[in-house]
Amino acid sequence: MANDPFFEAHHRTRQQQHQCMMMIQQPNNDDDVVPEHTCAQQQQQEQQNQSPKLAASSTSQNATPVLPAFVALLLLVTSIAPAALCHPLQGSNHTFRPNHELLKLRRVRAHLKKINKPSVKTIQSPDGDLIDCVLSHQQHAFDHPKLRGHIVLDPPERPKGNHTNGEAERVIESFQLWSDSGEACPEGTVPIRRTTEEDILRASSIQRFGRKPRPVRRDSTGSGHEHAVVFVNGDQYYGAKASINVWAPRVTDEFEFSLSQMWVIAGSFGKDLNTIEAGWQVSPQLYGDNYPRFFTYWTTDAYQTTGCYNLLCSGFIQINNRIAIGAAISPRSAFNRRQFDIGLMIWKDPKHGHWWLEFGSGLLVGYWPANMFSHLRNHASMVQFGGEIVNTRSRGYHTDTQMGSGHFAEEGFRKSAYFRNLQVVDWDNSLLPLRNIHLLADHSNCYNIWQGTNNVWGTYFYYGGPGRNVRCP
């Protein structure tokens, strides 16, 4: 972020901007180039327009011959002073370029206009979010070249098999904060979290806004990404299902995050990686707060140029008017108290081949069209469940950012975070238990994982940790 002149200019003093902003010619449209008008040039033009009036005034008042000399001196001083005002930090390393800032701000606003579609209703969430109810056919997904003219599909056949939530008296399904008031989006619309200028300005650049930091690998040693996950591979997978315990872990650096999610993966962990992801995350940079939020992600080239979080780029087609992707989840679990989780399922429609997303008990959120992908156009080769954090080491040691509840796996129910009822979808659109399970905790002194099986939770695991501690320096 520090290397992007746009973000440097944005955070400079508003005093400088006030002194020079009024002297910039505003263009007529987004394609115009802002002309270079300095403060001095603007002032000189004003002086030329005013000088006949001054002359007339001096004549009418029978001024002495000394007055024109005084006026000339005054004009000389005022033509120099505004230029100095535009550069109050001359002699320092700071140079204020209002033209450049305006051009960048125009780019931000053009991007906002692209992703924030007109709404028929707007709902104010208690956490400060604005949820826009956008007509389904006007959503951002259809801006993608591959989706123009796409007709939204009817819901597909759900996978066959065990759909139990298990232990209903102990675990309550969690939903979203914006809908707690009873407000809802009308039929025929989809709820979309409105993106603000501040959201984009927190990113390292407009181009990287809404994308994961690079590089990202499953084996994350040295990349700054740390995982505690269960995964299966070596077969053909057509989906995955789990219930994910929701917490609000502490994230100690603006550029770090903590998330818990499912990954549906195909391709290699190189430039051709395809993934579809869903879960919850705490990301101060992306959302500006520390609420856990329901999120999705997809990419077809290992997070390089394709895909994004939520609906921040075109691709995912939403059909549900009750779930807002990117909105805060409510309620959340508390240590040694009531536990809350969200049910998630991703699966490939056997008829059309698209990848569908279900939230909770049967709420279809929408789908990723198959033609958006290369490897995932056919099937997945790996399914992964678990937690991930980013460790920037911004203070010279391991981050204090928590994963899950912030407690290690061995502490168990009501203290550790968990996934339960882990299943995969096979070629016959059937839900099956996991086989040949692998566990990965690439920094186990910071975040660990413990897996088990029983008749109520099926395949499950506890995971997470506090980050920096005596064994994780």
UniProtKB/TrEMBL annotation:
InterPro entries for this protein: Glutamic_endopeptidase, Neprosin, Neprosin_propep
Span list, region Disordered: 28-59
Domain Neprosin PEP catalytic positions: 219-473
Gene3D superfamilies associated with the record: Outer-capsid protein sigma 3, large lobe
Compositionally biased residues, Low complexity: 41-50
Protein name: Neprosin PEP catalytic domain-containing protein
Organism of this sequence: Glycine soja (Wild soybean)
Organism lineage string: Eukaryota, Viridiplantae, Streptophyta, Embryophyta, Tracheophyta
